[in-house]
Design goal:
Number of domains: 2
InterPro entries: ABC_Gly_betaine_transp_sub-bd, PBP2_ProX-like
Helix content: 40-55%
GO molecular function: transmembrane transporter activity
CATH class of the largest domain: Alpha Beta
Strand content: 15-25%
CATH architecture of the largest domain: 3-Layer(aba) Sandwich
CATH superfamily of the largest domain: Periplasmic binding protein-like II
Number of strands: 10
Order of helices and strands: HEHEHEHHEEHEHEHEHEEHHHHH
Mean pLDDT: 90
Structural class: alpha/beta
Pfam families: OpuAC (PF04069)
Radius of gyration: 25 Å
Protein name: ABC ProU-like glycine betaine transporter, substrate-binding subunit
Amino acid sequence: MNWKILIATFVVLAVILSGCTEPASDDTEVEKGEVVIGSKLFQESYILAHMAGIMLEEAGYEVDVKEGLGGTFVNYEGLKQGSIDVYVEYTGTAYSQILEEPALEVWDPEVVYQKAEEGLKEDGVLVVSNLGFEDAYALAVKKQWAEENNVVAISDLENHASDLIIGTDPEFALREDGLPRISSLYGFEFKEVKPTVATLMYEAIKLDEVDVISAYTTDTRNELFDLTILEDDMNALPPYDAIVVMSAEFAEANPDAVTALEKLNGQIDTETMRGLNYQFDVDKREAEDIARDFLIETGLIESELAEE
């Protein structure tokens, strides 16, 4: 009889051990869960959203990238309401538009970053990574026109603005740190304002449908379309350092996600971002492929081939 008792004991122990180990794996899967990443309406935001997504996939999360979700407030409200967990913002936008801080007499990138970080934290949003580059707003005109009219700075547009059509992205025409501030500070109005998505804005100046655009300083189409970026000689526009933001609630529940995205800190300089945008605009590569290749090249993730 002893051997029967012994076998029964082993069976019970096996069941107990099985019950202890298998659910632990399932719990880990549940704990990681899904991360939803938003993006704005231009190529750079697509690329960076996928970059964050791939880093989180590597950390074991299931990722859903909402490419081209919307503008600043669509993404920010999504973050606050929990429909997205992460997106890439810019310090000047956070400072002036989200937090509605007053314009500084002299724009200092460090002050803007600090104020943005502090203000967002108070609003339940954390800056988890400072990517290392600035993508600023700027006014741009065709180089030939600029040379013919001796225009090198925004103030030089004063005698021409009433005859010029400006194309802008959907936000720049209305937001306080955009065209309204330029009009107020420089004291002139354009003949007409045509807001549209970034791709169509650049195509419009290429085809002479507009004369000026609200360009992005990391956009390679500035060079491709032979545009001149005008000096902001009255310091109207704030600095726009790229930052990864995450809801504080999600961050607290997912420290591994924070750790994964912290690895992107300082990894992208301005020239690198221009190169990544070039791959999207000129080489017509997919944003996710561009992001993955960059992460492999920088050693932040391993190549799938290397893993095989």
